[in-house]
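Cross-posting from the chemistry board since nobody answered there.

I work mostly on the small-molecule side, so proteins are not my area. We synthesized MTE and want a rough idea of how it might sit in this target. Sequence and SMILES are below. Is it possible to get a predicted 3D structure of the two together?
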Amino acid sequence: MLVKRAPDIKYSEITPKNLYLRRREFIAGSAALAAGALASGATASSRWPGGLARLFPPLAGDAPDKLSIAKRVNLAGDETTTPFEDAAGYTNFYEFSTSKYDPTRLARDLRTRPWAVTVDGLVKRPLTFEVDELSRMFPIEERIYRWRCVEAWSMVIPWDGFPLGDFIKKCEPAPGAKFVEFTTLYDPKQMPMQNDGVLRWPYVEGLRLDEAMHPLGLLAVGMYGEPLPPQNGAPLRLVVPWKYGFKSIKSIVKISFLDKLPKTAWSRENPEEYGFYANVNPNVSHPRWSQAKERRIGESGRRSTLMFNGYQDQVEKLYAGMNLRKKY
Ligand SMILES: Nc1nc2c(c(=O)[nH]1)N[C@H]1C(S)=C(S)[C@@H](COP(=O)(O)O)O[C@H]1N2
Ligand SMILES: [Mo]
């Protein structure tokens, strides 16, 4: 994300040249580390050549090291899946850093077990789930989705998780519930940037209840068939593929059902730039750049951004009658 009042972040940070230079360094670094792992007798994952899997294990507690995936669905057509090292090596996680490369290192020791997720607000009764109990409650699906950041870069990622709507049904929201609010862990000892004013912490996101019930919404516990790396929002994060990436909040500890619009972190910080709905829309520019095209990580050049990130047929009915050019 780019914030006007953060002088250290520039749009140039995400120019292709810079990215490619950094990416080469990153890959060179991983290859060296992986060679070390192999020399010491560790097995390399065939899926992540060079043993990258070993670089991003969930280190804390008893997180499962494999997911059992009941079903696989490709919702990105014939588009090529982004390599794992890019999806796990180029992240936005402002609780750790405003750089795309540092969360991989800085979030490494995030304690992700035990991890409780509380459900409160307008529900039949408040609930608390332990995260692994949650993953056992629902069959885990792998869904390959296009992923589009508001900063105009994109990826194609296989996420592993369960439909948000199935989880919401278990929560038994009260008739007055109209919105769902999600909150990230607040722990400045573990998340160094929470001592900094770049955002008002904790990170909060939200959806209208009917959007949250849409079958494309996912609560992810993994990606690429393995538990989520910390920098990608372990142990539980949201994935809403038709919206800009900032809606897909990481490391969730609380889910609240509300009768009014949640005060989300980015819309509170800068409502001119980041609206509540934040549906991917190539026809509406960000005040500081066009959203018509995107840079697919790993590709050169730019490709056209698709309305609702390519999920228009599935989701447009949610917004019937709304002016999609307006920032809500
Ligand atoms: N808690 C939290 N969630 C977050 C963010 C963040 O900084 N903190 N960044 C958002 C943004 S801008 C994007 S693009 C995605 C990035 O997800 P990824 O790093 O797994 O690709 O996470 C979103 N969720
Ligand atoms: Mo983003």
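Reply from a structural biologist on the board:
Welcome over. Reading the output above for you: The domain at 6-319 is CATH 3.90.420.10 (Sulfite Oxidase; Chain A, domain 2). The longest helix spans residues 16-39. Happy to explain the token format if needed.
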